[in-house]
User: Fold these one by one.
Assistant:
Number 1:
Amino acid sequence: MQKPNKIKAFFLEIGELTYFTKRFFKELFNKPFEFNELLKQCYNIGNRSLLLVGVTGFIIGLVITLQTRPTLEEFGAESWMPSMVSISIIREIGPVIIALTFAGRIASGIGAELGSMRVTEQIDAMEVSGTNPFKFLVVTRVLASTLMLPILVILGDTIALYGSYIIENLKGDVSFLLYFNKVFDALAFGDLIPATIKTFFFGFAIGLVGCFKGYYCEKGTVGVGLAANSAVVFSSMLLFIIDFVAVFITDIFFEI
Amino acid sequence: MNEPLNISDTTINLSTRTPILEIKNLKKSFGNKAVLNGFNLKLFEGENLVIMGKSGAGKSVMVKCLVGLMLPDSGSITVMGQDINALNRMDLDKLRTEIGFLFQGSALYDSMTVRENLEFPLRRHKHKFGNITDTEPLVLEALKSVGLENTIDLMPSELSGGMQRRVALARALILKPKIILYDEPTSGLDPITSKEIIELMRRVQQQYKTSSLIITHDVDCARVVSERMILLVDGVNYAEGTFEALKASTDKNVKAFFK
């Protein structure tokens, strides 16, 4: 029977991921701290995603404005454009789409990197060289991903708003100052803070799933490919679950 | 416990030598499959001991148990008088500085240069070398002993398979270990490069006065480097003796290794 096996495998994986998370927090506070490796990973992860996040953010801004403008024009509500775009980008679209592109790039990258290190015994070599590979490889990457995604989302959101402004300026002759005054009038801390907090969780989930899939990669090149692929699928799915929980909690505390 | 088929040879006298590494009744299973089924081994100081076995016979599992990369189900492993399984992480790391490990596929770190690969164990095993600042002389010395000092700033991907194996050997030697474990040192290499690696292993053993445990299924490698051999069959040491004595054996299972 195929079905019960798949269900069993799914719950086993959830169990293993929970154990992996527990080990992460245990190792996080144990000495020695791999500070240099953390900085290197922050640079790698942040720098590697910069262009992708910038382009994604810019296109989000352009497309949302272009798509929404005709509808607002119909009601004579073009002046609401900056408020509408900024709230939708800052609260939801920016964090989720940027996190998804980040997952595509970083979770697969980490999954493939650690997977090939596992297959070629580099992780074992690290262990016999007096290094705790979990601390050196996993803790640093998960932390770097957790710290870098919020920065990238803030950057991406800003670029998205700038993209939106360009369309508004071309189509509606709105000045930079007027556009951004309207944006900041519409935005409150209740929009910005919960959206930023959830990106830390997104970053954590992406780094954790990427490392989990790579660290326990099956033997062979097929295993490496599978690790990279399932890291993206699993982390993307997890992002939506976290997003739902975050919106639910925000609704209680900030009354959206 | 099954006694191994002892193929006697008068040329080796082990009674006067001290064992530096000892395995007693080692057992390891994966699910229902018993890989090691009561394996025993003694490696003496300065000795080159070859373990031969078919693929999947449990050779690599045994060598990983030796350095604490895998936990055995039962049995004891004593290295330089210390029981591996009873050590905490810090003491195990200290003991690992005395054991060099040449992995089957070299296991060089892809993202680091040759220099960084060699510096890595030096910087991590602080209790042996302290906070070492100038690693250059040690790195160069290790690379010189494998004849590759001009590759110091290259990436592993820029090296051939044989060169990678030699750099991996230099990385194993840089800590000046007392024991070197070779896991299939010639696998995946062409016959000429294999011969170079085998020659290098002999040279290194003479230069560094190490005890070597060589896991292989390469008969040529065993013939050249071994002082003594153990044949691993069905998870136990099936036969022991010198290469010549084992080769001359009439036992069907032993003969199968030398065809």
Number 2:
Amino acid sequence: MTEKHSGEIDYLAERFWEDVSVGDELAGFNKNLDWTEMALQVSGSQDWNRVHHDVDYARDSGMPGIFYNTGWTTGMLGRLLTDWAGRSGWVEKLSFQMRGMNFSGTSVRAYANVTGKRLEGDRALVDLDIFLENDQAGVTSPGKATVRLPMKNQ
Amino acid sequence: MSNTHPDDYDLDAVRAEWIGRLISEAKGRYPVEFDPIRRHCHMVGDLNPAFLDPDVAAEGPYAGVIMPPSMLPAYFAASGPWPPNEASGTDAETTAVFSFGVPTPGDRGINMEVQWEFLEPVRVGDRLRLELRIADVFKKPIKLDPHAIWIVTETTFFNQHEREVARWRNTMLIHRSPEQVSRDAERDVQTGEGA
């Protein structure tokens, strides 16, 4: 699994369990959050909770403004993992908390660290700490993930 | 719309009635489709051909396009956001309140924590259904509302072969609006109670 250049990912390559080490960092990706991105999160998630698209309602709910939703956060962290996992990698587990909000006019970075490797039966697993970090609010969604990778002898 | 004063709210009774209760057995109105997957990928800038390119995906390990694991399977396992289908348990009122029908003092919802297990790939054309249960209901104060109610749900997703494809444990926070908090406080002053 290689990055061809500046973020262009070779999605057809494999990432093998043997080539991963505890402490590896996933550089991940950045995204600037503007109003178009805000519209895309509603389109992509079909989440109609008004705190994600109705400024007056969000403020009436005690929020500073409309903020990005759980489907979007899941998608960002999911992309982080599937970008990295390679052609045959499989995300087995993904969990995170919403500790802060992401608003338009800010930017975010999704990144991760490898925290463990283990074999369970015929499953070769990698454990990761995952993060969505906002340039103004800090880490808004910390979490954990487990990815199953192919082995070279399989 | 709930707007129950916290003094009138019986958490023990709510827990006894709702924890463990099967809330929804929704079934997707449509099979898993290409374009909602494309919109999900567009949302987060995901260019992975396993999710977007049928020709490339056909040569991959799943022999076709699969749904990104991060795309909430609920999208295809419920009736969809519109038009509402009362039989699915996803009518507009329930969806808007996000309390799954559990009584709460407030009517404003924020999602707080998600835990996913992805068991099998979901392919374009699959038919999904879900079973959603209430796992826990408890009170935990937040800055906005000292009487915020937290609702934990557990959802299992099945494909058309009745195989589990995903499990989802979700924690939703239901709080009162600042206006409702003020209104409830006014009643406390009038009655001499302390919410």
